Amino acid sequence: MPRVRWGIRCFAVLVSLLAAGLCTSGYAAGPPAQQGPVAVVTDVDGKASICRSGHAHALAVLEALDRSDQLRLEAHARVEIAFTAGQGRVFSLSGPGRFALRADDVVGLDAGSRIVMRDLAGAWRALRIRPGAVGRASVSLRGVPGALFVLRSPVGAQLGNSVDELQWEQPFGLRSERWDYAVRVIDSQGSIIFSTRTHDTSVPLPRQRPWLREQTYLWTVEALADDGRHTEAAAEFRIVDPGTEERIRALGRIVEQARSDAPGSGTTAEEVLLAMALEQAGLRNEADPKWRALAQARPAFGSLVLNRP
Hints:
The protein is an alpha+beta fold.
């Protein structure tokens, strides 16, 4: 019996070694991987997998890639990856074949491995890639328990010229009752800097906005229906710092210029990177339409957008 157990154990070890060999065959590991991801997957079309530390799994869009990762593409599969560090480049990979990542490059390991490369504009090289898929952080809205009362915008980080109106949804959905809303905006010192009453579900803010950058503002809406029901909700927003806003606007200008130069060419890796940059800056109101546009143009983004909380 001990000999049988030993034989089973040896067989299991052999299988694991063979699996690791299949995953990494044809590529020398080289020096230890540098800290942090070096690239991000900006599109996946067809069957593709990634091998890391001897383990393989299906390759997903927005997956952060490390130096020494190995990709395997099946026939007719296409994968696009962007390096924002180093020289800043986009690589379009086509299968069948295997590909190995380096610090700022990709090499093909098989005869069928095809690579097309192009340079990114220098402005993209300041975008740091964070591990994991980009997801939308949930925003806490406070209100009466059980009441359906949602404040729509602004919530979270905002660009300087985007805070010009407060918007919310009618409590309890669309009904025939008339609602009266008391609206207030409060600064971080607790001072009321704007207040009004309205029957609409939006209200414009003063043209000369008093917003200070990187200060958190609280806005509240108290709702009273003509049948006597009452509910309230609150949300917070802040204006991003000037440096972040300028970088975001510069990246946006690059994308717009690319669209003008090549109309009808479809979405690009730069548009994915712009959506990532907006998301990482907390500008979710700005990022959402970018993700939706990508989901319409690139099937790999469809499930990601649908699953955003």
